[in-house]
Specification:
Helix content is 24%, strand content 26%. The protein is of the alpha+beta class. A hairpin with a 2-residue loop joins strand 2 and strand 3. It has a single domain (3-122), classed as Rossmann fold.
Amino acid sequence: QPQTDKEERRGTKQDAEGIKNRFEALGFVVEPYENLTCSQMLRTMREVGRRNHSKNDCLALVVMSHGDEGIVYGTDGIVEVDILLAPLKGDKCPTLAGKPKLIFIQVREFYMKDEKGLLNWVTCQWPFSVPSLTLA
């Protein structure tokens, strides 16, 4: 598996603060998390999926990281987006079934070192969709 040399996303703190302020102004309860490992991201999503969302009208999720099509990076590796979002599906989280899930994934371009230590730039400019995942 290639190792990433990820620079800090410039402007991340300002972006995160702006997003937090906007969602709070819209009446959302915001729970920020920073610099999670892959297992921490997955555990957090499972915990969110196990909550009782009966009194909530919707759920919003913002992921800001490095990534590529269909994947985001934790501090220690890669997580597939469909696996990350699976705990929000109706069969796993019945109190969110039929409710809107607002999913925003912002990834930054990065470069990867291959096994020979050569750098390869990856630019993430793709329309995000997970056609096999329905969050009902």
